[in-house]
């Protein structure tokens, strides 16, 4: 039996999961926004004309890239990796087209991120992007969304090695822009930074997912697995020690449950998520005496287990990331106004890719053993 056959089904399930957990909620969010936010009709129409035209140009550009590199060698990296990045970028681009985004992006996303940083030099640097956006908010927002649509479609419809290399370089550059100006360096300079709330930033995870397409050495499955293993391990170990820093206030009774409460206050677009968050808040608020110690030990244990390539560590990392993505990051897309699914989902997808690589390696090893036994028997 070929141990690699089930991998195709797993890849399909991951893509289906991303579709259900992102595309369908995005449709719901837009329906809510069009009814809940009053935007002058001429301005809204102008915004969507810009968004439509720029997006069409982006899709055409991604098709042209495919045409230019059509005769090149196909990438040997797992196709599920580019499909994951592609879907994430397309969804991020669509979220940028929410009606409240041209003005709300500054007041609800960039502004609070800058204000929470306790460093004047960093604040002044980030204000450059803030003031630039204010010049033409509709144009810049439409262009930003279209760029992300371009990156996403380029990953989805191109599978050639050189095409993916150049697309990934552009993806990394734009991810850095988002990580610096949109996420305030992933929230690292902020007080209260935590893996629970989105450290180290979704854009940085996008960068890590894009890097393998640039260097030929990652065509070696072992190098690719080690790359993801080390970064996932580092994220959890650093996240564990962030829980110990007194200035992050996680030792204060009620702080962790308060973070869930703040998500409830921002929640208005999904009653199911509201129900989950509300019950989690009530549960945690009366059980916080040793919660931060437990969080530290759990994150640290996951990080060490992943570093040692213990399969159970990856499963535990996946469960932990999924739960924190729902409870503490509000699934990203349901926080008003959403710009991406936050760190939890991309990190979850990176762990899923690593599990696929591990299973693929096991399948190949099994096949090689069978072939060796057949040779000996003859």
Mean pLDDT: 81
Q: List segments where confidence is low: pLDDT < 50 over at least 5 consecutive residues.
A: 365-378
Count of individual domains:
1
Query: Tally the helices: what do you get?
Result: 14
Main pleated-sheet profile: none
Order of helices and strands: HHHHHHHHHHHHHH
Outline, from the CA principal axes?
globular
* Ends apart, CA distance between termini: 19 Å
**Care to count the β-strands?**
0
Proportion of β residues? Answer: under 5%
Rg (CA only): 22 Å
Helix share, percent: over 70%
Tell me what you see in this structure:
The structure is a single chain. With 378 residues, the chain is mostly helical. The chain has helices at residues 5-36, 41-68, 79-95, 101-115, 120-135, 137-157, 161-182, 202-210, 221-242, 255-266, 271-285, 291-307, 311-327, 344-377. It has one domain (5-361). 73% of the residues lie in helices and 0% in strands.
């Amino acid at each position: 039996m070929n141990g690699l056959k089930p991998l195709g089904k797993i890849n399909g399930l991951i893509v289906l999961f991303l579709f259900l957990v992102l595309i369908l909620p995005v449709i719901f969010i837009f329906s809510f926004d069009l009814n809940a936010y009053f935007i002058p009709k001429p301005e809204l129409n102008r915004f969507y004309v810009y968004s439509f035209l720029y997006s069409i140009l982006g899709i055409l550009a991604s098709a042209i890239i495919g045409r230019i590199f059509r005769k090149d060698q196909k990438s040997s990296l797992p196709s599920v990796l580019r499909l994951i990045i592609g879907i994430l970028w397309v969804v991020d681009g669509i979220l940028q087209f929410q009606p409240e985004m041209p003005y709300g992006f500054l007041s609800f996303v960039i502004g609070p991120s800058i204000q929470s940083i306790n460093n004047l030099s960093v604040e002044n640097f980030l204000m450059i992007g803030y003031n630039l956006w204010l010049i033409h908010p509709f144009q810049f927002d439409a262009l930003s969304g279209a760029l992300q649509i371009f990156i996403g479609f380029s990953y989805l419809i191109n599978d050639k090695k050189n095409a993916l290399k150049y697309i990934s370089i552009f993806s990394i550059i734009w991810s850095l822009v988002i990580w610096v100006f949109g996420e305030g360096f992933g929230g690292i300079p902020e007080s209260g930074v935590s893996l629970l709330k989105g450290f180290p930033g979704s854009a940085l995870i996008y960068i890590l997912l894009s890097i393998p397409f640039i260097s030929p050495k990652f065509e070696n499955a072992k190098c690719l697995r080690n790359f993801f293993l080390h970064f996932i391990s580092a994220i959890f170990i650093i996240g564990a020690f962030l829980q110990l820093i007194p200035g992050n206030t996680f030792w204060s009774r009620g702080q962790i449950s308060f973070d869930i409460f703040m998500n409830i206050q921002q929640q208005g677009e999904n009653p199911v998520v509201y129900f989950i968050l509300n019950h989690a808040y009530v549960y945690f608020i009366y059980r916080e005496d040793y919660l931060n110690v437990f969080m530290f030990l759990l994150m640290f244990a996951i990080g060490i287990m992943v570093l040692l390539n213990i399969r159970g560590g990856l499963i535990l990392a996946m469960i932990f990331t999924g739960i924190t993505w729902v409870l503490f990051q509000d699934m990203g897309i349901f926080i008003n106004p959403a710009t991406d699914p936050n760190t939890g989902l991309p990190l979850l997808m990176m762990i899923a890719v690593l599990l696929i690589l591990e299973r693929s390696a096991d399948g190949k090893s099994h096949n090689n053993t069978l072939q060796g036994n057949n040779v000996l028997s003859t």
